[in-house]
Amino acid sequence: QAQTPSTWVFSTACLALVAFIPHQLLDTSASAMKHTKSAVISVLSVLLAPGSLANLPGQDNFPIVYVVHGPGGTPLARAVVGREEPCPSLEGQAGASTVSQVRGVGRDAMPYAFPVKVCEVPLPREAPAGSLALGGKRLPKITRAPTRFAFIGDTGLRVKPTNLGTCSHPGPEKLYGIKQCEPENVVPFDASLVKGAYQNLSDWPLKEQMDRAAEEAPDLVLHVGDYLYRQGPCARGQGCTSINSQTDPSMPGEWGDNWHGWYSDFFEPSLTLLAAAPWIMLRGNHEKCDRGGHGFFLLLDPRPLPSNWTEAYCEDFTETYAVPFDSEQFIVMDDSFIQDLDTDHVCPAGQSEQSDALPASRYDDRDQKLSHEGIAQQIAYFAEQFRKVESSAKPGLTNFLASHRPLLGVACHQGRYLTVDWTMQQALGSGTLDLISATIHGHVHWFQGLVFEKQALPVEIVVGNGGTKLDSAKMADARAVEGLRVNGVRIERAFTSGLFGFSLMSRMPDGDYSLQSLQVGNHNEKTLPSDAETLMWNTSIPAMMRRQGLRRLAGAPEIHV
């Protein structure tokens, strides 16, 4: 195998695999491989033999330590270390020591190369900040009674190449959700062939946002999913080619569902906030099995891995669970596998005459991969998950529903307003949201806050403005959807912003909650004054018992589902 860069094919039509394979090897083995994904993956497994990842990303920061909350609220401390390193010990102030246990040990082999060891150990529900240390790194405060919460989502660098300018015709096989280029279709770089979605690294403020959120000293961080957006290499001239492998063509770049991709797109820019507070980590559609699901299950999912785990493990569906605290709980749903409707993001140009924001049916979308029967089965599946939400909600706590896709959010298509997720709305039961004070989501790359008349529906919060390329939709003004009805209920207050940021929620002395949406990292936004205030919008969220009282006093209207 030749080792000079001139003998390697790097740029392909979003073809992550060919980027690593010697051109001679592809040519001479083409007949045997038949250009199938499995064959190409096997070639990569040989090229990335054990020991080839000597310069492991992040090793200077090992152990990378963080805390996740899972079902039932049990906090787990995790540590990412080198594959050959022992799991670190959990140490307390009294000198007691507990060795953490191996969660999973990955391998070098692509496409899911995770040459690290992930260790974990359960923690007590209460521990002062710094009283516990894992691998010598002090853990944040662990508490049953959090009062400050940070919400963020959709954080990764958007790199979705459909043609890097070097492919005459992309083939059908995919890696990380991206079509691969057959060797015979590789051509010299042609800028006119470049297609896809690319985000300039200078317009990716994730580290700034994470550092700023850590300064707010939250007791809990909720990430609503979509951590890994780097699905392939970056095309020339797009401002992100530094994520491509610069020195060793046999190595993956800083992208893909492997340790290189996950460290660069999430862990490295998030180190300060990971150290500042425990997290609840949701799964987004970018963590589906064909995108970033393998890393999600190894690194972030709070549930145990199967005893026969390998880095190829991934589940399409995961069950709803609750994370309870003394005054509130977060009910977490996995809606990652729903296929989006094809929308053009075109909003009404001025004041709209619409009275209702209506969902667009997947049955009418010709691009849907599932049959009508398959879509109906998904609706039935989510109806069951919503029944679990309803049974999990507790009258004595303030309940927050968290899922990746906005349940009742309003977006744009063909100059009209529509509600975002038809599948979830079809599955919603008539009483599902009765005990829910607010729902928290991402997926749409902006911030949106909706407060409904007479508290008939929960406050809706969309925090998809966490760092990835922002949505191209532009509403006439931030309050444009006020007065629209969603599921028969009028929106009383609304705010939509296409600026980067995150949200903070605080529990007040009277038990209610105050939500603040902050803009951070918008240095390239020319319409934003340099001295613009950080606070964009704020609202109150009633505690559960008060919300029920307000609905009774107001005579809340019937909710149409």
Task: Give a quick set of tags describing it.
single chain, 561 residues, alpha+beta, eight-stranded mixed sheet, six-stranded mixed sheet, 8 helices, disordered C terminus
Q: Which helices and strands occur, and which strands form pairs?
A:
Layout: H1 23-33, H2 37-47, E1 64-69, E2 75-82, E3 89-92, E4 97-99, E5 101-105, E6 116-122, E7 132-134, E8 137-138, E9 148-152, E10 159-163, E11 174-175, E12 178-179, E13 195-198, H3 206-215, E14 220-223, H4 259-276, E15 279-281, H5 293-299, E16 321-324, E17 328-332, H6 372-392, E18 398-402, E19 410-413, E20 416-419, H7 422-427, E21 436-441, E22 447-452, E23 459-463, E24 485-486, E25 489-497, E26 501-507, E27 513-519, E28 535-541, H8 544-554
Parallel strand pairs: 9-14, 14-15, 17-18, 18-21, 21-23
Antiparallel strand pairs: 1-2, 2-6, 3-4, 3-7, 5-6, 7-8, 9-26, 10-13, 11-12, 16-17, 19-20, 22-23, 22-25, 24-25, 26-27, 27-28
How does this model look, in words?
This protein has helices at residues 23-33, 37-47, 206-215, 259-276, 293-299, 372-392, 422-427, 544-554; strands spanning 64-69, 75-82, 89-92, 97-99, 101-105, 116-122, 132-134, 137-138, 148-152, 159-163, 174-175, 178-179, 195-198, 220-223, 279-281, 321-324, 328-332, 398-402, 410-413, 416-419, 436-441, 447-452, 459-463, 485-486, 489-497, 501-507, 513-519, 535-541. The chain is of the alpha+beta class. The strands form 7 sheets. It has an 8-stranded mixed sheet with strand order 16-17-18-21-23-22-25-24. Strand 1 (64-69) and strand 2 (75-82) form a beta hairpin.
